[in-house]
Amino acid sequence: MHSRSTLLPYVVQAGNPQSISLVLSIDCKPSLSYLARSRQGKTALLAAIDLGDVDTALKLIDRGGQQINLRDIGLGWRPLTLAVVRNQEEIVKGLITKKVSDVNGYEDSKYHGAPLILAARSGRYRLVEILLTIKKLDRRVADRKLRTALDLAVIAGCWRTVHALLDDPFERDCFATYGHNPMFHAIASGNVNIVESLIQKNFAVIPPYLGKALQSGKEAVVRALLTGQAQLASAQWLARKALACAAEGGLLHFVETLLPGADSAERHEALLCAVEKNHWGVARLILDDDRAREADTIFSEYPFASWYLLMARNNGEACDGADFDFKSYCFCLAEREF
Q1: pTM higher than 0.85, yes or no?
Q2: What's the rounded Cα separation, in Å, for the pair 172 and 201?
Q3: Would the CA dihedral through 8, 12, 17, 18 be positive or negative?
Q4: What are the ANK repeat spans here (predicted)?
Protein backbone atom coordinates (compact mmCIF):
# COMPACT_ATOMS: atom_id res chain seq x y z
CA MET A 1 0.00 0.00 0.00
CA HIS A 2 1.33 3.41 -0.98
CA SER A 3 1.41 6.14 1.67
CA ARG A 4 -0.60 9.31 1.09
CA SER A 5 0.53 12.86 1.71
CA THR A 6 -1.09 14.75 4.62
CA LEU A 7 0.06 18.09 3.21
CA LEU A 8 -3.26 19.29 1.77
CA PRO A 9 -4.98 20.64 4.94
CA TYR A 10 -1.95 22.77 5.79
CA VAL A 11 -1.72 24.14 2.24
CA VAL A 12 -5.39 25.17 2.38
CA GLN A 13 -5.02 26.71 5.85
CA ALA A 14 -2.09 28.79 4.61
CA GLY A 15 -4.56 30.56 2.33
CA ASN A 16 -2.33 30.94 -0.73
CA PRO A 17 -4.54 30.42 -3.83
CA GLN A 18 -1.59 29.75 -6.14
CA SER A 19 -0.18 27.06 -3.85
CA ILE A 20 -3.59 25.44 -3.50
CA SER A 21 -4.16 25.38 -7.27
CA LEU A 22 -0.70 23.97 -7.83
CA VAL A 23 -1.10 21.19 -5.29
CA LEU A 24 -4.53 20.23 -6.60
CA SER A 25 -3.48 20.27 -10.25
CA ILE A 26 -0.19 18.34 -10.21
CA ASP A 27 0.11 14.60 -9.85
CA CYS A 28 1.80 14.40 -6.47
CA LYS A 29 3.88 11.45 -5.33
CA PRO A 30 2.79 10.26 -2.85
CA SER A 31 -0.81 11.11 -3.77
CA LEU A 32 -2.80 13.56 -1.65
CA SER A 33 -5.05 12.35 1.14
CA TYR A 34 -8.32 14.28 1.16
CA LEU A 35 -9.19 12.68 4.50
CA ALA A 36 -6.04 13.89 6.25
CA ARG A 37 -6.49 16.31 9.14
CA SER A 38 -4.40 19.17 10.41
CA ARG A 39 -3.43 19.49 14.05
CA GLN A 40 -6.60 21.51 14.60
CA GLY A 41 -8.69 18.51 13.49
CA LYS A 42 -9.74 19.96 10.13
CA THR A 43 -9.68 18.30 6.74
CA ALA A 44 -8.80 20.41 3.71
CA LEU A 45 -12.50 20.86 2.89
CA LEU A 46 -13.36 21.97 6.42
CA ALA A 47 -10.41 24.38 6.41
CA ALA A 48 -11.55 25.90 3.09
CA ILE A 49 -15.12 26.37 4.36
CA ASP A 50 -13.90 27.84 7.64
CA LEU A 51 -11.71 30.36 5.79
CA GLY A 52 -14.48 31.25 3.33
CA ASP A 53 -12.44 30.01 0.35
CA VAL A 54 -15.39 29.13 -1.87
CA ASP A 55 -13.37 28.25 -5.00
CA THR A 56 -11.14 25.77 -3.17
CA ALA A 57 -14.09 24.27 -1.30
CA LEU A 58 -16.02 23.71 -4.54
CA LYS A 59 -12.98 22.07 -6.15
CA LEU A 60 -12.64 19.71 -3.20
CA ILE A 61 -16.37 18.97 -3.13
CA ASP A 62 -16.26 18.17 -6.84
CA ARG A 63 -13.75 15.41 -6.09
CA GLY A 64 -16.28 13.79 -3.76
CA GLY A 65 -15.39 10.97 -1.43
CA GLN A 66 -15.85 10.68 2.30
CA GLN A 67 -14.35 14.13 2.94
CA ILE A 68 -17.80 15.69 2.47
CA ASN A 69 -19.07 13.79 5.53
CA LEU A 70 -16.12 14.04 7.95
CA ARG A 71 -16.71 16.06 11.12
CA ASP A 72 -14.47 18.81 12.46
CA ILE A 73 -12.93 17.31 15.60
CA GLY A 74 -12.67 20.69 17.32
CA LEU A 75 -16.13 22.16 16.58
CA GLY A 76 -18.01 18.90 16.06
CA TRP A 77 -19.59 20.10 12.79
CA ARG A 78 -19.80 18.40 9.44
CA PRO A 79 -19.07 20.40 6.25
CA LEU A 80 -22.77 21.15 5.58
CA THR A 81 -23.35 22.56 9.06
CA LEU A 82 -20.14 24.58 8.95
CA ALA A 83 -21.10 26.01 5.55
CA VAL A 84 -24.48 27.10 6.96
CA VAL A 85 -22.80 28.73 9.97
CA ARG A 86 -20.40 30.59 7.66
CA ASN A 87 -23.31 31.56 5.35
CA GLN A 88 -21.71 29.98 2.26
CA GLU A 89 -24.66 29.41 -0.09
CA GLU A 90 -22.65 28.04 -3.03
CA ILE A 91 -20.87 25.52 -0.82
CA VAL A 92 -24.20 24.37 0.65
CA LYS A 93 -25.57 23.84 -2.87
CA GLY A 94 -22.45 21.92 -3.87
CA LEU A 95 -22.66 19.63 -0.85
CA ILE A 96 -26.35 18.95 -1.45
CA THR A 97 -25.59 18.12 -5.09
CA LYS A 98 -23.01 15.57 -3.92
CA LYS A 99 -25.65 14.09 -1.57
CA VAL A 100 -24.03 14.44 1.82
CA SER A 101 -25.05 11.69 4.21
CA ASP A 102 -26.41 13.60 7.23
CA VAL A 103 -28.47 16.51 5.88
CA ASN A 104 -30.52 16.64 9.10
CA GLY A 105 -27.45 17.09 11.27
CA TYR A 106 -28.69 14.80 14.03
CA GLU A 107 -25.14 14.35 15.29
CA ASP A 108 -24.32 18.04 14.85
CA SER A 109 -27.38 18.97 16.91
CA LYS A 110 -25.64 17.47 19.95
CA TYR A 111 -23.13 20.31 19.65
CA HIS A 112 -24.75 23.51 18.44
CA GLY A 113 -27.70 22.64 16.19
CA ALA A 114 -28.78 21.08 12.91
CA PRO A 115 -28.28 23.02 9.63
CA LEU A 116 -31.97 23.93 9.27
CA ILE A 117 -32.13 25.12 12.89
CA LEU A 118 -29.01 27.26 12.54
CA ALA A 119 -30.19 28.85 9.28
CA ALA A 120 -33.67 29.66 10.63
CA ARG A 121 -32.37 31.02 13.94
CA SER A 122 -30.04 33.48 12.21
CA GLY A 123 -32.70 34.59 9.70
CA ARG A 124 -30.81 33.35 6.63
CA TYR A 125 -33.86 32.71 4.49
CA ARG A 126 -31.91 31.89 1.32
CA LEU A 127 -30.10 29.06 3.09
CA VAL A 128 -33.44 27.86 4.43
CA GLU A 129 -34.85 27.81 0.89
CA ILE A 130 -31.82 25.83 -0.33
CA LEU A 131 -32.11 23.29 2.49
CA LEU A 132 -35.84 22.83 1.89
CA THR A 133 -35.10 21.54 -1.62
CA ILE A 134 -33.93 18.32 0.09
CA LYS A 135 -36.92 16.01 0.20
CA LYS A 136 -35.54 13.80 2.99
CA LEU A 137 -34.81 16.79 5.24
CA ASP A 138 -36.50 16.38 8.61
CA ARG A 139 -38.68 19.47 9.08
CA ARG A 140 -39.43 18.50 12.69
CA VAL A 141 -35.80 18.64 13.84
CA ALA A 142 -35.55 20.80 16.98
CA ASP A 143 -32.98 22.42 19.22
CA ARG A 144 -32.33 21.55 22.86
CA LYS A 145 -35.36 23.58 23.95
CA LEU A 146 -37.54 21.59 21.50
CA ARG A 147 -38.03 24.59 19.21
CA THR A 148 -38.40 23.83 15.52
CA ALA A 149 -37.06 25.93 12.65
CA LEU A 150 -40.41 27.71 12.29
CA ASP A 151 -40.51 28.48 16.02
CA LEU A 152 -37.07 30.09 15.83
CA ALA A 153 -37.90 32.04 12.67
CA VAL A 154 -41.02 33.45 14.32
CA ILE A 155 -39.12 34.34 17.50
CA ALA A 156 -36.45 36.07 15.41
CA GLY A 157 -39.19 37.99 13.60
CA CYS A 158 -37.77 37.13 10.17
CA TRP A 159 -40.81 37.32 7.90
CA ARG A 160 -38.97 35.96 4.84
CA THR A 161 -37.70 32.90 6.71
CA VAL A 162 -41.21 32.22 8.01
CA HIS A 163 -42.59 32.41 4.47
CA ALA A 164 -39.85 30.15 3.16
CA LEU A 165 -40.83 27.49 5.71
CA LEU A 166 -44.56 27.92 5.14
CA ASP A 167 -44.10 27.66 1.36
CA ASP A 168 -42.10 24.44 1.69
CA PRO A 169 -42.63 22.51 -1.60
CA PHE A 170 -42.59 19.15 0.20
CA GLU A 171 -44.85 20.09 3.12
CA ARG A 172 -48.59 20.27 2.49
CA ASP A 173 -49.83 20.64 6.08
CA CYS A 174 -47.52 22.96 8.01
CA PHE A 175 -49.77 22.97 11.08
CA ALA A 176 -49.51 19.16 11.37
CA THR A 177 -45.72 19.46 11.15
CA TYR A 178 -45.05 22.39 13.48
CA GLY A 179 -48.05 22.37 15.83
CA HIS A 180 -49.36 25.24 17.99
CA ASN A 181 -46.05 26.74 19.12
CA PRO A 182 -45.37 29.04 16.11
CA MET A 183 -48.71 30.81 16.65
CA PHE A 184 -47.95 31.16 20.36
CA HIS A 185 -44.58 32.77 19.63
CA ALA A 186 -46.08 35.04 16.95
CA ILE A 187 -48.74 36.30 19.37
CA ALA A 188 -46.16 36.79 22.12
CA SER A 189 -43.99 38.88 19.80
CA GLY A 190 -46.97 40.88 18.55
CA ASN A 191 -45.96 40.48 14.90
CA VAL A 192 -49.22 40.96 12.99
CA ASN A 193 -47.78 40.00 9.59
CA ILE A 194 -46.55 36.64 10.86
CA VAL A 195 -49.83 36.00 12.71
CA GLU A 196 -51.78 36.62 9.50
CA SER A 197 -49.41 34.37 7.51
CA LEU A 198 -49.90 31.52 9.99
CA ILE A 199 -53.68 31.95 9.91
CA GLN A 200 -53.62 31.71 6.10
CA LYS A 201 -51.86 28.35 6.50
CA ASN A 202 -54.69 27.19 8.83
CA PHE A 203 -52.75 27.36 12.09
CA ALA A 204 -55.37 27.04 14.81
CA VAL A 205 -55.89 29.60 17.57
CA ILE A 206 -57.01 28.29 20.95
CA PRO A 207 -58.50 30.42 23.78
CA PRO A 208 -55.28 30.56 25.89
CA TYR A 209 -53.49 32.11 22.91
CA LEU A 210 -56.31 34.58 22.38
CA GLY A 211 -56.10 35.46 26.06
CA LYS A 212 -52.36 36.07 25.69
CA ALA A 213 -53.00 38.34 22.72
CA LEU A 214 -55.55 40.31 24.72
CA GLN A 215 -53.17 40.65 27.64
CA SER A 216 -50.40 41.88 25.35
CA GLY A 217 -52.56 44.91 24.57
CA LYS A 218 -51.87 44.70 20.82
CA GLU A 219 -55.24 45.42 19.25
CA ALA A 220 -54.01 44.69 15.71
CA VAL A 221 -53.04 41.13 16.70
CA VAL A 222 -56.42 40.54 18.37
CA ARG A 223 -58.27 41.79 15.30
CA ALA A 224 -56.13 39.60 13.04
CA LEU A 225 -56.94 36.55 15.15
CA LEU A 226 -60.68 37.19 15.26
CA THR A 227 -60.90 38.14 11.57
CA GLY A 228 -58.73 35.28 10.36
CA GLN A 229 -60.64 32.70 12.35
CA ALA A 230 -63.84 33.65 10.49
CA GLN A 231 -62.81 31.14 7.82
CA LEU A 232 -62.48 28.31 10.34
CA ALA A 233 -65.10 26.14 11.99
CA SER A 234 -64.30 27.43 15.49
CA ALA A 235 -64.86 31.08 14.56
CA GLN A 236 -68.09 31.65 16.47
CA TRP A 237 -66.90 29.78 19.55
CA LEU A 238 -63.58 31.64 19.56
CA ALA A 239 -65.30 35.02 19.20
CA ARG A 240 -67.44 34.20 22.23
CA LYS A 241 -64.34 33.41 24.25
CA ALA A 242 -62.72 36.70 23.30
CA LEU A 243 -65.00 38.85 25.46
CA ALA A 244 -64.72 36.44 28.40
CA CYS A 245 -60.91 36.39 28.14
CA ALA A 246 -60.80 40.18 28.07
CA ALA A 247 -63.14 40.45 31.07
CA GLU A 248 -61.20 37.86 33.05
CA GLY A 249 -57.98 39.76 32.43
CA GLY A 250 -59.54 43.09 33.39
CA LEU A 251 -58.80 44.55 29.95
CA LEU A 252 -61.29 47.39 29.92
CA HIS A 253 -60.37 48.70 26.46
CA PHE A 254 -60.89 45.35 24.74
CA VAL A 255 -64.12 44.71 26.62
CA GLU A 256 -65.40 48.06 25.41
CA THR A 257 -64.37 47.17 21.85
CA LEU A 258 -65.92 43.69 21.83
CA LEU A 259 -69.07 44.44 23.86
CA PRO A 260 -71.23 46.02 21.10
CA GLY A 261 -71.11 42.88 18.97
CA ALA A 262 -71.72 40.42 21.81
CA ASP A 263 -75.01 38.67 22.47
CA SER A 264 -76.59 38.15 25.89
CA ALA A 265 -74.87 34.80 26.51
CA GLU A 266 -71.46 36.28 25.77
CA ARG A 267 -72.13 39.27 28.03
CA HIS A 268 -73.34 37.02 30.80
CA GLU A 269 -70.18 34.88 30.64
CA ALA A 270 -68.01 38.00 30.58
CA LEU A 271 -69.86 39.46 33.59
CA LEU A 272 -69.30 36.32 35.63
CA CYS A 273 -65.60 36.31 34.74
CA ALA A 274 -65.23 39.96 35.73
CA VAL A 275 -67.04 39.53 39.08
CA GLU A 276 -65.12 36.35 39.95
CA LYS A 277 -61.79 38.15 39.34
CA ASN A 278 -62.93 41.34 41.16
CA HIS A 279 -62.59 43.49 38.05
CA TRP A 280 -65.35 45.87 39.07
CA GLY A 281 -64.62 48.42 36.36
CA VAL A 282 -65.23 45.78 33.70
CA ALA A 283 -68.35 44.49 35.46
CA ARG A 284 -69.77 48.00 35.70
CA LEU A 285 -69.07 48.56 31.99
CA ILE A 286 -71.05 45.43 31.10
CA LEU A 287 -73.94 46.39 33.39
CA ASP A 288 -73.94 50.04 32.31
CA ASP A 289 -74.29 48.88 28.74
CA ASP A 290 -77.80 47.74 29.70
CA ARG A 291 -78.83 50.70 31.87
CA ALA A 292 -81.09 51.98 29.14
CA ARG A 293 -83.04 48.75 29.39
CA GLU A 294 -85.33 47.80 32.22
CA ALA A 295 -83.79 46.12 35.25
CA ASP A 296 -85.95 43.05 34.65
CA THR A 297 -84.36 42.70 31.22
CA ILE A 298 -80.90 42.72 32.80
CA PHE A 299 -81.75 39.78 35.02
CA SER A 300 -83.49 37.88 32.24
CA GLU A 301 -80.31 38.17 30.17
CA TYR A 302 -78.00 37.46 33.12
CA PRO A 303 -79.87 34.82 35.15
CA PHE A 304 -76.97 34.35 37.60
CA ALA A 305 -75.79 37.95 37.77
CA SER A 306 -77.87 38.77 40.85
CA TRP A 307 -76.50 35.72 42.68
CA TYR A 308 -72.92 36.81 42.03
CA LEU A 309 -73.68 40.39 43.04
CA LEU A 310 -75.33 39.26 46.26
CA MET A 311 -72.32 37.05 46.98
CA ALA A 312 -70.08 40.07 46.42
CA ARG A 313 -72.18 42.13 48.87
CA ASN A 314 -71.81 39.47 51.56
CA ASN A 315 -68.08 39.12 50.93
CA GLY A 316 -66.24 42.13 52.35
CA GLU A 317 -62.97 41.24 50.68
CA ALA A 318 -64.55 41.08 47.26
CA CYS A 319 -65.88 44.60 47.67
CA ASP A 320 -62.69 46.22 48.91
CA GLY A 321 -61.53 47.10 45.41
CA ALA A 322 -64.85 48.65 44.36
CA ASP A 323 -65.82 52.29 44.72
CA PHE A 324 -68.80 53.18 46.91
CA ASP A 325 -71.16 54.19 44.11
CA PHE A 326 -70.72 50.94 42.24
CA LYS A 327 -71.21 48.86 45.40
CA SER A 328 -74.44 50.72 46.06
CA TYR A 329 -75.48 50.10 42.48
CA CYS A 330 -74.76 46.38 42.83
CA PHE A 331 -76.65 46.19 46.13
CA CYS A 332 -79.68 47.88 44.63
CA LEU A 333 -79.78 45.43 41.76
CA ALA A 334 -79.35 42.46 44.05
CA GLU A 335 -82.05 43.64 46.50
CA ARG A 336 -84.51 44.26 43.70
CA GLU A 337 -84.06 40.73 42.41
CA PHE A 338 -84.42 38.96 45.75
Answers
A1: no
A2: 10
A3: negative
A4: 40-73
